[in-house]
TrEMBL record:
GO terms, molecular function: metal ion binding
InterPro entries hit by this protein: Ferritin-like, Ferritin-like_SF, Mn_catalase
Keyword field: Capsid protein, Manganese, Metal-binding, Virion
Keyword DNA-binding (UniProt): no
Name of the featured protein: Spore coat protein JC
Record bears the keyword Metal-binding: yes
Family listed: Belongs to the manganese catalase family.
Binding site for Mn(2+): 35, 65, 68, 116, 149
Protein species of origin: Desulfosporosinus hippei DSM 8344
Cofactor(s), by name: Mn(2+)
Amino acid sequence: MFNYSKRLFYPIHVEREDPAFAKLLIEHYSGIDGELSSALQYFHQRSFISNRHIRELLGIITAEEFGHMELISVAVSKLGGPPLTLLNAQDALREIKHIDQSFDLNKLLQMDIQAETRAIRLYKQHLELTNDVNMKKMIKFLIGREDVHKYLLKKAQRLVRESGTPEEFNELIYDYKMSLQVLK
């Protein structure tokens, strides 16, 4: 299901080291609204969702979230940040107890939409805390990708509520793949 590509999802460049900003970025790596949280939540959810299209969507978003973690880890390293651990920016050990254990698909999708919204908000806050043009570009890229996830999760939620057809659910995967075309 998961594939590894040697090439990063987005090229990471920095103008100069900035350990203070690197420490802020760690929140995107292992914080409560970070990429690890999203990846674990989506990975967990897909294990019991019967709708194969939503299960596939969550699987490909999970893989992308792990790719985002890799971008953050490379950026932290290039900025001269500390070695990454599963500690958040407050040096607290990362916990997974906040991952929802509900089996209600509508509720799960709503939680996923909210998680993407919080991630976007956090990226936007950190966007204002750097003058590094390259870091701003990376963060804007990540905001754009989180927006794609949010859009697709909203569409999935609407299709669940409206008892969408298999063809409509298939569009979720098509839309995701098309969102990647602009990256090539």
